[in-house]
Structure formats: structure tokens, C-alpha cells
Write a structure and sequence with these properties.
This protein is 29% helix and 19% strand. It contains five helices and seven strands. β6 and β7 form a beta hairpin. The chain starts with 14 loop residues before the first strand and ends with a strand.
Length: 176
């Protein structure tokens, strides 16, 4: 939920890049007066800014406070807030089974994107099986069988390798 821009901006971190789309959406004047350690306007119309002197200082109390100040300055309702989620989960335990993740966040302000966000394209299972077959036989494994989405291989010492492709795929090895 926090990483999907169509649901909200994931957060503010040590280093932050906002492209021209977000600079326009928030308003350039907001970034002109942004509380931060360092900021650089980019030739693209975007901005890069930091909330700590170095990446190693990302979790100091000062950096955390500055990150919260940046959210407040730009409008906290545009950002995903994990603390709100944690608080709600503690309050609601045990979590009702029918509760959806978006119910853990108050409504957020979202821009109107000039593009659509499409789900990533995945290969057909047959293609993924072929890719796995090529890769593991190239590594010296001998194919034993294919059952559904799972290919079973054997290595030179008799160990068994089971590779399941597709969503939730796994690789499990049992030495002899």
C-alpha cells in the first residue's frame, strides 16, 4: 500500500527525489521553503533534498523529526503513515479478517496522474518453466519431471532440487 504511488507517497527518507510532476502538484513555493538539510533543484524541474547530513544518519532523532516536518510542510495527508497503521492495528487486535489494508489509513490527498498505472506484465507459466529449465540445466542439474508449475531436478550427487515458478514460486533443495 505504501509503495503504490496511486495510493499515496511512501514517505520521506534521508534522500528524496520529487520529479517535476510532484513539484507542480505540491507547488514550487512549498519546496522553496522546505525544511531540509540540503536541497538541489534539478535541470528536469525536479528537486532532490536530504533530511540528514549523511545516509548513515537517516534514523537519528533529528532526522526523524525533520522527516515529519517535511511531511507536515508538504501536507501529511499526501503520505503513507506507518505509525497510524501500527496504532490502528494495536487498537483493533485481533484484526478482523475482512479488514482491508486501505482501511488502516485515513483518506489521502492524491494527484490526478496524467497516465495510468498498469499492473506489471508477467510471463506465461510455460515461459517461466522454460527459463527455469534452461537456467538449472545450464548449472549442471538434470531434469527429472515437471508437475504443474514445479520442475524437479537432480544434481550429480543425487540431491533433489524443486523449482516452482509463477506467483509465490519457491526453490527448495534437499541434499542426498
Amino acid at each position: 500500500m505504501g509503495v503504490k504511488l496511486e495510493k499515496g507517497i511512501p514517505g520521506i527518507y534521508w534522500g528524496n527525489y520529487f520529479g517535476p510532476f510532484y513539484v507542480d502538484w505540491f507547488g514550487r513555493e512549498k519546496f522553496e521553503t522546505l525544511p531540509c538539510v540540503e536541497k538541489r533543484w534539478l535541470d528536469t524541474g525536479g528537486i532532490f533534498f536530504t533530511t540528514a547530513p549523511t545516509p548513515f544518519d537517516w534514523d537519528t532523532p533529528q532526522a526523524r523529526q525533520l522527516q515529519q516536518e517535511v511531511k507536515k510542510h508538504l501536507g501529511a495527508d499526501a503520505f503513507f503513515d506507518m505509525e497510524t497503521v501500527r496504532w490502528l492495528i494495536r487498537e483493533l487486535e485481533p484484526i478482523p479478517e475482512a479488514m482491508k489494508p486501505e482501511q488502516f489509513q485515513p483518506p489521502r490527498r492524491l494527484p490526478e496522474f496524467p497516465f495510468t498505472v498498469e499492473a506489471p506484465k508477467y510471463k506465461a507459466i510455460e515461459e517461466e518453466i522454460e527459463d527455469a529449465r534452461r537456467y538449472f540445466t545450464g548449472q549442471g542439474y538434470e531434469e527429472v519431471s515437471v508437475e504443474g508449475r514445479t520442475i524437479t531436478f537432480r544434481d550429480a550427487r543425487g540431491g533433489i532440487l524443486r523449482v516452482t515458478v509463477g506467483a509465490g514460486g519457491t526453490v527448495a533443495y534437499q541434499p542426498k
